[in-house]
Inverse folding.
């Protein structure tokens, strides 16, 4: 019964939804003509290579050994949202209290997602057999999100850098636990998120919006910390 319920939940979680759709059609901080992932990323392993067999064995082992609790936790933490980091940044880290920050990150996430989609279309790597989706395994969009979010958040809150990156790595690795990505997809996604942020940081609109979002976040974190001491 538990396995069946989790399987249904899994399908619901992976089904396309408006909540996970791109925020809009235009890029905000990235110029896609200046960052070509086909040139910058290594290609996914050849399907007949030893590297591909290693990828397959790793996913099969992780899926075979995962516990129901691990699966449920990975499903619960699978939604791409910067507010996944509330466990590190505190209970005050919520969109209702951070409207400017929320808008800024929606733009970042949209740019990264569209960049990843271009690469997915090019490589068309099949997903692991455990995934309901059949294509678009390489690179991992969730890993790209995790890397980009961790880099930006750690620039805003450098005193929590280690905890932020630890949580981001867990978020990315959950994709293997769920059986929807190979380890090489995760590595490529992490590189993608890093490249995307490095490119964004040169954009003047990004720099201005980052400063505004950071100031709002720092105020909220300070207020939440002061309130917790009362």
């Amino acid at each position: 019964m538990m396995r069946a319920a989790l399987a249904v939940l899994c399908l619901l979680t992976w089904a396309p939804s408006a909540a996970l759709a791109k925020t809009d059609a235009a890029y905000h901080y990235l110029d896609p003509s200046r960052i070509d992932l086909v040139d910058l990323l290594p290609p996914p392993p050849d399907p007949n290579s030893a590297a591909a067999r290693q990828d397959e064995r790793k996913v099969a082992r992780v899926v075979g050994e995962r516990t129901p609790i691990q699966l449920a936790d990975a499903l619960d933490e699978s939604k791409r949202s910067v507010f996944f980091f509330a466990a590190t940044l505190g209970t005050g880290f919520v969109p209702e209290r951070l409207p400017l920050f929320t808008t800024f990150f929606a733009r970042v996430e949209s740019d990264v997602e569209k960049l990843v989609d271009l690469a997915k279309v090019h490589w068309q790597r099949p997903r692991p057999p455990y995934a309901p989706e059949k294509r678009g395994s390489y690179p991992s969009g969730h890993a790209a999100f995790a890397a980009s979010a961790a880099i930006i958040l750690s620039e805003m809150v450098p005193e929590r850098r280690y905890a932020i990156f630890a949580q981001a790595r867990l978020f990315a690795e959950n994709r293997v636990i769920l059986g929807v990505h190979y380890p090489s997809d995760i590595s490529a996604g992490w590189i993608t998120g890093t490249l995307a942020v490095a490119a964004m940081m040169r954009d003047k609109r990004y720099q201005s919006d980052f400063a505004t979002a950071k100031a709002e976040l720092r105020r909220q974190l300070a207020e939440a910390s002061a309130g917790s001491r009362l």
Observations:
- Residues 53 and 67 are 24 Å apart (CA to CA).
- The chain has one domain: 2-229.
